[in-house]
Amino acid sequence: MKLVTKDDNFFFLLGSMLVLFFVSAVVHQFKDDAQDYVLALIVLCMTTSIVGVHRKQVFYRSWYALMITVVVVSGVISLFEDYDLSLVTMFALLFFVLAQTFSALKQVMMPKQVTLNQIVGSICVYLLFGLSFAFIYLIQLELFVAPFNGLENKPWMENLFEVIYFSFITLTTVGFGDISPTLAIPKFFVFLEAITGSFYLAIMVASLVSSHLAQKE
Questions:
Q1: What is the spatial distance between Cα 201 and Cα 215, in angstroms, rounded to a whole number?
Q2: How far is CA 162 from CA 24, 58, 152, 168, in A?
Q3: Predicted confidence (pLDDT) per residue in 76-109, tens digit
Q4: CB 39 within 8 A of CB 148
């Protein structure tokens, strides 16, 4: 059995995101008021996801470390002080996920050979798209009044799993309708996510097939 090495960096990222999604669901179902647990889980996920980043990539490691610091400081202040820094926390999380998405997409699209790490990376990029739009929707919940039907006005960490669920339902263009946008700007990001999900699958499948054929030749 092949051991996971530093070149298999996407395994760290995929594992941390799957743990985040599952434990968020468990917390949401059985302990909906556990905001501190959710924040700790997000920080743990962010920290674990950079384990696979190569040490020579100083810029990415420094950027990720800065975002983690901002999330921890602003989150702790929001939980234990009277200041509400939810927007600061969510924007830091969004920038972190976008940086991860860009880095992962570049690594997936550039290699000429199709490897297991590249396939796992393509899955990670798809999940990162959904997570990025989830934080965009959470920010809109803070900025606008009732931007979505089916989502209550409560702290963003309590809405996290519901928004992640809605984001991936939109990304896969399933659209159950239990949550829906009511304002123009949220509607724009909803159909933008649906288009992104559809085109990404088509482009990624074509890219992997062409790389595999070139590898055979």
A1: 21
A2: 10, 35, 10, 10
A3: 776 666 667 788 888 888 888 888 888 888 877 7
A4: no
| Beta-bridge partner residues of 165 | none
Cα–Cα distance, 179 to 189 (Å, whole number):
14
Q: At what angle do helices 184-216 and 156-171 cross, to 10 degrees?
A: 50
d(CA 97, CA 53): 14
Q: Tokens at residue 78, please?
A: 């929001």
pLDDT digits (tens, 9 = 90+) for 131-151: 999 999 999 999 998 899 998
Q: Which two tokens stand for residue 125?
A: 């990029």
Integer distance in angstroms from the first to the last C-alpha of the chain? 27
Contact 45, 16 (CB under 8 A): yes
Cα–Cα distance for residue pair 93/133, rounded to 1 Å: 11
Coil vs helix vs strand at 180: strand
Instruction: Give me the residue label for tokens 């006005």.
Output: 153
pTM above threshold 0.90:
no
* Closest of 14, 22, 15, 36 to residue 164, by C-alpha: 22
HEC readout, 90-149: HHHHHHHHHHHHHHHHHHHHCCCCCCHHHHHHHHHHHHHHHHHHHHHHHHHHHHCCCCEE
Which pair of structure tokens corresponds to residue 129? Answer: 């798209």
